[in-house]
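Researcher: I'd like a structural prediction for the single chain below. Treat it as a standalone chain; there are no partners to consider.
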Amino acid sequence: MSAYFAINGDGDYQDARPGSANSQRGMRQRSARARKDVGLIGQASWLSSVINLLNTIVGAGVLAMPLALSRMGVLLGIFVILWSGLTAGFGLYLQTRCARYLERGSASFFALSQMTYPNAAVIFDAAIAIKCFGVGISYLIIIGDLMPGVVQGFSESAGGVSFLVDRHFWVTGFMLVVIPLSFLRRLDSLKYTSVIALISIGYLVILVVAHFVKGDTTQHRGPIRLVRWESAVATLSSFPVIVFAYTCHQNLFSIVNEIGNNSHFRTTSVVVASIGVAAAIYILVAITGYLSFGNAVVGNIVSIYVPSVSSTIGKAAIVVLVMFSYPLQVHPCRASVDAVLKWRPFKRSESPQSSPSRLASLLAPSKTAPQTRGDGMGETRFAAITTSIIVLSYVVAMTVSSLEKVLAYVGSTGSTSISFILPGLFYYKISSPDSPHHQRLMKEDDDEEEDEGDEDEGLLGGRGLKGGVWRKRVLRRLSLALAIYGFAVMITCLVTNTLLVVAPH
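Model: Treating it as a single chain, here is the predicted structure.
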């Protein structure tokens, strides 16, 4: 950014002559840069942003991809993986577009809700908080379920030591590791633990591919479905597994707030890189894992490998993965809980379009509040909310051994909302040409893009401007289509969960 200023600073000064088109463009460009510098200026690199977002996307669910292929067939399964990545990526892209209507460092679901659907803001943030809280608990449960087997895999005599095969001991022990990480304010601070988690994912991918290449599972392999699916019901049961495998939208606004260069190109490239790598991992594991076992594959492919040191390390890698993914769920959960607590009903006499001061008062920290940081939470409030999340998740993980039924509904509602419905509805409303937010808060970056189009076209009559308007119109329609698609996915998943998960077998 500083290099950009150094190169273009004199040009802006020379072009800023009264009455010239260049003067207006120069003023808009300087205004855009000034607006970008408001609030907490991000320091995160592009690579750390991709790492954290990719770690949020790819979790233990990657090991269920071969089973999804066995139920859908190879061709349909690969198409659904790619389609789900495309729709999830478009939702992320819409979030980056919505963030441009907000001051730098203040982008959040709560802020957009206050500008678009203020009375529903508490519902949106409550759904996000519950979803992230439930996923965090499931990570602790996975640790408690896997660690006794990991210990016995490395040492058979460990089974004689009672506490080493006690799930409560391991949940408690790993909580001591994740607690300090959960108190980090900035998502960028978790980039190193995310690297370790991604290394664990890399090992799991290598493990699955290596067994496929060696061909040591052929004696247990069942038939292969290339085109034909198992059944419509079986296909629908695996559809949510793939769709929700890309859910990471709860952390995107934090990444946009913290990234050093928040230009449209850089934020979009973070989305494309993360979704692209995740889709490649899913397809690779799905194909090699399914071809290794055929229709005999199960939900966790690592569990059916012949017991060995490599498979035991694979189970340990899953533990490391979910352990370092837990703080990535606490971060958005804390922000959503804070938003729920600060929410107040929106009076009919007030108008979100005509009362920007109300939005500012909700988003900005109070002058009389205790010491605050970039996220607007005081030290005491931050500690209290974080401690509550950690303690409650620990208590639930210690007392409950399975959250399958609860998470089925939480995922169907929370994941579809933050991945498809909210990004689509937010952008559709805030980008309306008749919206005061669009007229007052639209970033000057959009004008710069249109100006660049005018310069490129020369004397062709403003075709660049018309093209920009046409693209925005198409984008609004696609955002509405994404929201409708999200409602359809929600209904499908709720019906499927009711029939397959909750209904007695």
